[in-house]
Amino acid sequence: MDLFLLRIAVLLAGCGLGAAQDAKSGIISDKITYSMVVLGIIFNLAELNWIGLAMGAAVFAIGYAIYYSGKIGGGDVKLFTGIALLLPFFGGKIFVISVLVEAAITAVIFYSVFFIIKYARTGISLKENTQGIKKSIVFGIIFAGFFYFWIATGLLPLHSLVLLAVALCLGLVFLALEKGIRKNFFLKKIKLAELEEDEVIASEFLDENAKKQLALPAKGIIGEKEKQKLSKAGITEVLVYRNLPPFGPFILIGAIMALAFPGFFEIII
After folding, report:
1. Can you give the pTM of this predicted structure?
2. What is the per-residue burial (b if ≥16 Cβ within 10 Å, else e) of 232-258?
3. N or C: which terminus of the chain carries fewer CB neighbours within 10 A?
4. Would residue 263 count as lying in a domain?
5. Dihedrals φ, ψ of 190, to 5°?
């Protein structure tokens, strides 16, 4: 089999297995992601593709920074690293960026609709979402400026413009209601002894004592070091976010879309 086709086959197999596992259990096994990373390194070394290796390293570094802030899972970071190593470029574009954009857009559309409806059924509180609503209005004004530019110049294809408009409108509504959605569906009070590896801190709901002990505004996850600090301060329970929606299935969707339609977001990526 041609090495290029082998790269694609390994990539799709890894993304497919990761998506299935993430949807079922909320995790992506290291066996899957490390296999993709190792094979990607081997393929790039075989072709002396130093750019591909550098791209994988860059994706991991950027992804880890986002993971450290609690915005993405560690398995997702390793999966994106594997994708970057296995297929650095496709259709004249940086493939992992195409995957990320298309995965993010489809995830935003699906989860925004799902959780907005779910939250509406429990009763939306405008008061607890005041800050989110203000933030959403600001971002809405900024995005409106971009859309005016794209429409006026015709730089963005109509199909891309429509899909982006739908995703951004739904995303802005989700952003406005995010605090209430997180509180109602993901917020959990967990005993320190029951904390799992790299729990996501619910920083906006922590009391002042817990915030003071953590004192890590850039960090969004709780590790052993943070657990020891809290324990020494006599804090036995902490608020975290659990059962966050999986991103793995949308990474698979993004990979398939990026392979099938490499020029779909021609101007953006």
Report:
1. 0.87
2. eeebeebbbbeeebbbbbbbbbbbbbb
3. N
4. no
5. -120, 140
Residue type present at position 185:
F
**Half-sphere exposure of residue 254: CA atoms within 13 angstroms, side-chain side:** 26
The conformation of residue 219, written as its DSSP 8-state character, comes to -
Q: Where does the chain have alpha helices with state H?
A: 3-25, 30-46, 50-68, 74-86, 95-122, 130-153, 158-185, 208-214, 224-232, 248-260
Which tokens sit at 222? 């709780």
d(CA 250, CA 239): 27
Tell whether 131 is covered by a domain. Answer: yes
Nearest-5° Cα angle at 167, 166 to 169: 65
Structural domain includes residue 265: no
What is the tally of structural domains in the chain? 3
Q: How far apart are CA 171 and CA 30, in angstroms?
A: 31
For residue range 233-246, list pLDDT tens digits in order. 777 777 888 888 99
Q: Give the separation between CA 10 and CA 86, rounded to whole angstroms.
A: 8
Confirm whether 39 is domain-assigned. yes
Cβ-contact 85, 52 below 8 angstroms: yes
Q: From 133, 158, 137, select the one nearest 147 (Cα to Cα).
A: 158
